[in-house]
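We give the chain.
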Amino acid sequence: MNTADINTKLIDSYISLLKNMSTQNKLDLISRLTNTLNKDIEQEKTDFYKAYGGWDKKESAEELIETIKKSRTFNRTIEEF
C-alpha cells in the first residue's frame, strides 16, 4: 500500500467522524486547522531565514576579508629528520 492510499483512507476516516458534528463545531475545527497552518507557514519562513540570514555587519567586503586574514593562526610545525 503506497502513501497516497494510506492518506486517502485516513482522510476518509476523518470525514466519517466529522459527519455527525454540528455545523458550528465543523466551523470551529476549520478555524483551528487554519490557524495551525498559518503558524506552520510562518515557522517555515522564520526557520529558512534563520538558516540563511544575511550578513548584518556594516563593514565592506575588503574589510571583512582583512579581518578574516588577521584572525588566522598557523601553528604548524615542521619536524626535521
About this structure: The chain has three helices and no strands. The chain has a mean pLDDT of 83.
